[in-house]
Amino acid sequence: MLFGCAAALGALALVCSNNALAQRAGGGGDAYRPPTGGTSSFGPGKPEGAGGSIVATPITPQEAAKKYPARNGRYPMGERDPHDPSGVVRSPYPPHTKFDCSKIAHGGLVLDTHVNKVFVRP
Length: 122
What we know:
alpha+beta; 4-stranded mixed beta sheet; about 25% helix
């Protein structure tokens, strides 16, 4: 019985010390902060913009016509959600990824890098 109590007490001490050390390793017990570095969970090399969206890739009309010709002569319009931050536009192509288009002029062309198709920023 004495051995069982000693083992339980030792295990309890180990668990308590492990929690204390784990909290110290995270910055002295501060609240969790997600890692910084400007990349999003969408993959490497995809900078994160407003509202967790991907920073949009602008494309010139000449380059778009050469590499990604429009069906019926026109590119579809991106979709704006009033609940998203200003400048965030949803792609008209599935899976309807959100892009931060705040640095692209209204009416400018945006390349949806997930499906390699072009749409117009509303």
